[in-house]
């Protein structure tokens, strides 16, 4: 059976992660830490023996490997070693208060080296159930928008500012954004798109740290962490306000021009 270079890369990345975990645990053991509670190192002035700490380290390393394998096998949006490393770092995340209420963590989906990336606000009910961003009605509209631009959905990368569903679809709160945004930044750095399209008021204002209304920000190029960013309306807003689709299409045409895509005759 032939094994692709991508599979080799993934295997090498898994080996690297395991080696790092092993080295980290050995260092903790040597530093006198005998066990890990909830991800927090506990001092072992009370640890009783080297064998105890060694078995704890082994168990934790096994859990890390199991978690990594689960990510490799089942998670969406991890199609490169760099993205897999971000997902592995995220783990079974409980860094903010959205974690306990989720059904599935919604990491991202799409081409791991896409030239075009879309960023929304956070998962809704459908996304929470399926573990994939933009799969409900708004997602279906986003897919149409992507296809109208001359791409297939799987050719772009899609993610959200926060990866767990806010209860009742409320806006994510500042502490939740602060906990989760570093992972979005890492995803963008991993994918290295030419253009990010920020969807809706919340994503735009959060990414740009600019409270200007979306109606005034849309359609104007901005910079996010060295990547060109185009603000436009969220597909859910467009479903509620169909006449605004024309302005959103103007924004997307600017993106197409930037990426060398020819707008279809409409
Ligand atoms: S929203 Fe982000 S930071 Fe908060 S629990 Fe989910 S993955 Fe972790």
Automatic annotation (TrEMBL):
Descriptive protein name: Type-4 uracil-DNA glycosylase
Residue span, Uracil-DNA glycosylase-like domain: 107-253
Lineage: Bacteria, Pseudomonadati, Myxococcota, Myxococcia, Myxococcales
Annotated segments matching region Disordered: 39-58
Enzymatic reactions: Hydrolyzes single-stranded DNA or mismatched double-stranded DNA and polynucleotides, releasing free uracil
Family statement: Belongs to the uracil-DNA glycosylase (UDG) superfamily. Type 4 (UDGa) family.
Enzyme Commission number(s): 3.2.2.27
Keyword Acetylation found: no
Organism: Anaeromyxobacter diazotrophicus
